[in-house]
C-alpha cells in the first residue's frame, strides 16, 4: 500500500478534527479565570478568511498568546492556517461549529471574524461560557443585538473588545485629545467619507451551488436558510441584508467611529435621515452603493457620505474633502482636522498646517485586548463593547432610514432637504457622481428616507414613522441560532 503524502495526512486529520468537539485543545488555564502576567492566554479564532487571516497574524505577535483552536463553517480554510501555526494539527483544534469551542474550558478568549449576522450571538454565547471576546466590526447586525452584547459583557464580567482598531492608533488618539481639548476652538460639523470603489457582485438566474467544503446551515446561522442567490458565498454576504450591513456597516463604521471619537459624541443621535440607493449596477446586491446620511447630533452634527462608484472628480490630497478611501473632515471655529486611519492633520482657517499627528493604524489593538484580559479591567480597552455598539448602531440607523424610505425624483429630494444646507451640498455631490456614471435619477431615482426621531436612552424610534422603523431594531431568528432577549 502506498504511503500517504504529508498533504493527504493533514487533510484526513482535518476531516476527523472538524467533526469533533474541541476537547483536543491543549491543557491550560480554565476560561474565565484571572490570568497571571506570565501565563499563556489560549485563543480560538472564528472566521478564517480575509479578516480572520489578518487577526491570526496580529494575535500571534502578542507575547504570551497561543492560538489553540480554529473555527470556520468552511473547512477549505483550515489547512493553510494549521500549517502556519506549526503544521501540528493534533495540537490545534479545527471545528466547524462555534459551539464546540465553547465546550472547552481551556480556552480563555475567542476572536470573532465571521459575517456580521453571527457577531452578536457568538459574543453572547462566549460571555455565557466564560470566554473573553475580540469581535470584529460592526459588532452587531441590528441595534438590539449590540445592546444585548453590552449587557452580556457586564453580567458575566467579560472583557469584550470591538474590532474598531483605529481607536488604538497613536496619531488619532493624540488628534482626539488635541481637538476635544479646544485645539481648534468649538467643533461645528463632522464630515466623514467612505469612498471604496467596487464592482458589481454579479447577477444569477437561480440558486447557486454551495462549496462542498462549507456547512451552509452553519453559515446562515441566525439568518433564514434560503437557497444561495449570489455567485460568491464568501465576502459578498456584506451586500445582502440577511447577513450584512452593506459598506455602511463594513467600512463606514470606522468613519463614523472616528467622528464620534473626535467630537466627543458618546450616545446615538436624536434624528437621522438617509438618501441612498443601489444604482448603476444590475446585480444580486441589495445594499446601497451610494449613500448620504445626516445624523442630527447636537451640538455637532455628523454627515456621512458613501460611494462605491468611481468619483467624478479627483480627490484632493491633504484636504480630506473628499479624500479616502475612509477619511474625515472635522470643521471647527479655528480650522479643520482631516485624516483617518494612520493619523490626522490640523489646519488653521487659511489652510496652513498647525500640527500633524502621525499614526500607526492601530497595530497594538490586539495587544490592548490581551492587556485588559490579563488585568481583568474593561477600562483598559481602547474600544470596549459599548463604544463598538454605539458606532455600529449609527450604521444601523442610517440603513433603517433607507429601508423605510421611498424612491423620489431629484427635485422632490431637493425640496425635502431645502432647509439643510450641508445635506443639500452632499446630495448635489452624490447626484453629480451618479450622473458621471451614466445614472439618470429621473428614471432610476434614489430613495429618500424620512427624518426619523430617535430616543438615544431607550434606543427606539419615536414619532412619525416609528412603528415601521422600530421593526428593524431586531430581526426574526432561526432556532437554535437566537440572540436571547435576556442574556
Structural commentary:
The chain has 487 residues and is of the alpha/beta class. It folds into two domains: 6-167, NAD(P)-binding Rossmann-like Domain (Rossmann fold); 170-202 and 209-361 and 385-470, Dihydrodipicolinate Reductase, domain 2 (2-Layer Sandwich), CATH 3.30.360.10. The chain contains 15 helices and 18 strands. The protein has helices at residues 6-18, 50-60, 78-84, 98-102, 116-128, 143-155, 170-180, 216-220, 246-250, 252-263, 365-375, 385-403, 410-416, 421-436, 466-470; strands at residues 41-46, 65-71, 93-95, 109-112, 132-135, 160-162, 187-194, 271-277, 290-296, 302-307, 326-332, 335-340, 343-347, 353-358, 406-408, 446-448, 452-455, 460-462. Strands 7, 8, 9, 10, 11, 12, 13, 14, 15, 16, 17 and 18 form a twelve-stranded mixed β-sheet that branches. Strands 3-2-1-4-5-6 form a six-stranded parallel β-sheet, with helices on both faces. It starts with 5 loop residues before the first helix and ends in a 17-residue tail after the last helix. Mean pLDDT is 90; it is low at 1-32.
Quantity of strands, as a count: 18
Shape: globular
Mean model confidence by pLDDT:
90
Strand content is: 15-25%
Biggest sheet overview? 12 strands, mixed
Instruction: Give the domain tally.
Output: 2
Note the gap between the termini.
55 Å
Oligomeric state of this protein: single chain
- Taking pLDDT < 50 over at least 5 consecutive residues as the criterion, the unreliable ranges are 1-32
